[in-house]
Amino acid sequence: MRPLHRCVAALILFGVYSSPQAAIELRFESLSAPAVELSDVRIAAAGLGGGRARITASRALVAGRTLQHVKLECGDFAVLPEVHCRRGRLSAEGYGPWPVEFSLRGSQRALRADVRLNAGVTATVTGALAGDAPQLRLVSSGVPLAFLFGELPVLKPYGPAGQVDVDATLTLSGVARTPRLRATLVARDGRFGSADGLRAADSLSAVIDIDVQRDGPDWRGTLVTDWRGGELLWDSIYLTGGGSVLSADFRLSTSALNLTSLALDLAGIGRLTGDATLDRASATLRAARMQGAELDLKLLNERFVQPLFAARGWPAFVMQGDADVAARLDPAGLHSAKLIVRGGHVSDAAGRYSLQQLDADLPWQRDGATRMHITAGEGRFGRVPVGRFVLDAEVAPDHVNVQPVRIPLLDAGLQLNLLRFERVDGRWTGDLSADLEPLSMPELTQALGWPRMAGSVGASVPHVRWRDGVLSLDGQLLIQVFGGYIAASGLQVIEPFGTTPRVLSDLQMRYVDLDALTETFKFGRITGRLDGDVTGLELSRWVPLAFDARVRSSEGDYPRTISQRAVDSITALGGAGASAAIQRIFLGVFERFGYRRMGVSCRLRNGVCEMDGLSERNGGFVLIEGGGVPAISVVGYNRRVDWEVLLERLARVTETKPVLQ
Amino acid sequence: MKTMHRIVLLCLLYAGAVWAQGNLEINTPAISQLRDAMQARHAQLAPHYASGALGLTADGRIALRDANAVPLAQRQAVQGLVAQENGDRDALYREIARANGHPEWEADIRSTFAQRWIGRAQSGWYVQSGGQWSRK
After folding, report:
1. The pTM is what?
2. pLDDT single digits (tens) A505-529
């Protein structure tokens, strides 16, 4: 207990205080030594040269930590010729009792103390308490983590457990005898867990180097934590293996912990730097800044972004490239952030889209709007290639407003006139308006891997709304194709990103050039024009579940011929029951036949297509009504056809995969 | 709404469910697909109901009530399963309401399902009532 400063003592010798066995009783209001302060200290000893002794302190402040009711009982305690305590027991409220022995020898007051913390763990303290350079060294193996950190307010709820090997040296330097502690802690089999189990660790191993010294009323120093291995779960983030190093300079005052030159080296990802201030009393964050440059997006995404998405049931995506990040936090959480992506590549895990050569500047603020800027070099939606485009958007907590942009698609472009998302009453809504410039069908069909089609396709999307998981089209979506058009109305896409995306729509097809259509699908040649109406179309997972469809030759004056192969195709579609019933004799003689009308309907329910034609004939239904010379009629008899079977037949006769599949 | 209350509905079992017989339309393809997805997932969820890690909430969803009952390395995956299951359950209630032409019934359908899920929970599973968890 030397040097003892501020020893304001009420010294009462020789049994003034009543204690039957004590020959000596001392009382000190306070005693202090480097990093140790004791209050209300009482010493009761049998004598100066040996015998039993009891030393108590109502309160002890050891390296900033408060212990209550500290008690040391020695079986043999002496002050002369050396200070020693043998067969001692040390305890404090919540700690011990631990067997302890110590001795102080010579003018340097050389100390050796052994404290047995439990059956297998002994802490040995050696050093010199006096002289020019007083110092103490504590060495111990297998100290329970709970003993060291279990009572820290920030860690207590997590119930830390495991063992630590400690090698710590306390020195006093300079005239002011400024204390400095250097310690290496090697943690083994570290574990902790929050009550709900969502923040937990197991088998953690880490090496912590700490160098701290007194600076006026504060402590300042450096801390390096090298995570070597084990498992760590923090909400949705799960990390294994270690390889990450956290280092910081810090200053601990009575009110706050300031971390400066904070650096976190994330294995394989890169380095984050920053600073932070934490409130000591509440163990909460006051402020923090963090930034990182040239981080590996691939690993950053796999370890930190994908888990957050997966935990919310959102679809996963793949990222590559470099990223710079910066963020500011305050007591309310994330205040602002910025993500800069260079040479990025993003694609969804299901391969539905990809964007390459992505450069992005994505700032975000909690309390205001920011402008985001994205340049995409190339990419694809499905199989359709997308050219370079530049996207500018205003982003705020309650809205995202994308500036009008033209996205090149093949030889044309998709003009986004309006793309806006708003949060209303906690729910996000969206609005879109777009025009598809006329797109070359040969190029499009080639890109999609479909049979080559002639002409071009264009579309106008006046207004699409996104409300409560449903995409709805206001008005009509008009697609120009095969010289005619297809108009979709009442179009809704329900839960497009859910388990069962569904599409509801009515379709109207007018004046489609059969020559181009049949040539495209190698169906056999038919000249003429076709109208069609599909009502109550319902697709689930993009497969038709129900519709009422009726297709027929358009009204008007135009050439109407059908090739023998097309007749074969149509009869094959109708199955065994179908036949080219009239003028069969001409089949095999003529290449082409005339017709007056053609038409077919299909009512799809429960996987079965109920078919009908233009009119009834001999118990069947007329699909093609002959006209001209030579004329031909085709009659179907099988009214109920399995939809899958129909698709298979269509695939056979067109030598291609049906588009609807 | 009275119409809905008159309907005899929603006899749900877990895996291998026998679904409703009654006037409420629950046999649409979308509902079947949701049911299939939920049944396929149930095999993965069942051990976690039994261990007490997962519980059935009063709003017709499921919740990770005690992740400590799941090995550390699996907790992330179980969180994902819970999110997917809840996504499907929410979609199911919406789909049934839509399929019957009454989107406004969703809350009542959810509430009815919640009671049935809890009523049919196996012994030992945790269920939520009044914000409190209890073991059946």
Report:
1. 0.75
2. 999 999 998 888 877 777 788 899 9
Q: Do residues A104 and A148 both lie within one domain?
A: no
**Is A355 in contact with A379 (CB distance < 8 Å)?**
yes
Q: Which among B33, B80, B98 is the nearest to A311, CB-wise?
A: B80
Asked if residue A366 is part of any domain, the answer here is: no
Last residue of a domain, one of A224, A254, A284: A254
The answer to whether the Cβ–Cβ distance between A307 and B83 falls below 8 Å is no
A616 and A633 inside one domain: yes
Are residues B72 and A311, on separate chains, in Cβ contact within 8 Å? no
- On chain B, the residues whose CB falls within 8 A of the CB of A500 are 30, 33-34, 37, 91, 95
Structural domain that includes position A466: 398-442+454-492
Res A3: pLDDT? 39
Q: Which chain B positions have a beta carbon within 8 Å of A469's beta carbon? A: 91, 94
What ipTM describes this predicted complex?
0.81
Which residues are within 8 A (CB) of A597 and not within 5 positions of it... i.e. 6 or more apart? A552, A553, A614, A624, A625, A627
Instruction: Please tell me if residue B76 touches chain A, with a CB cutoff of 8 Å.
Output: yes
3-class state of residue B27 by DSSP: coil
Residues A236 and A196 in one domain: yes
- In angstroms, rounded to a whole number, what is the distance separating the alpha carbons of residues A383 and A376? 17
Number of domains chain A contains: 4
Task: Identify the three-state secondary structure at position B18.
Answer: coil
Domain boundary among A228, A254, A280: A254
A99 with A217, same domain: the answer is: no
Q: Are strands A484-494 and A502-513 parallel, antiparallel or unpaired?
A: antiparallel
Q: pLDDT (tens digit, 9 = 90+) per residue, B50-103?
A: 999 999 999 999 999 999 999 999 999 999 999 999 989 998 998 888 788 888
